[in-house]
Amino acid sequence: MNIFGIGLPEMALITIVALLVFGPKKLPEIGRSVAKTIRSFQDASKEFENEFQREAQKLEESVTMSAKLEAGKDSAESEMADSSSATSKQQSNS
After folding, report:
1. Quick check: is 74 in a domain?
2. CA 58, 59, 63, 69 torsion: positive or negative?
3. What is the CA angle 64-68-70, rounded to 5?
């Protein structure tokens, strides 16, 4: 068991010191406070990660859309150039 790089013997020592410093009556209250704090950090971390993923997805969608628009613009320009050259050939043959 390894939590935050602390092994079982270190956790036992920390618990014994906390018990001696705070006493048996305050220790459960402190444990709950620490657990709530850790849980709030985890929730904030998950929220940050989700927000980051949403923004990355929006950015990817906008880049994809820009690439599609650019490809459509290029194909439209080449079609116009092709039809323009065809019209010029027809006029010169006439």
Report:
1. yes
2. positive
3. 115
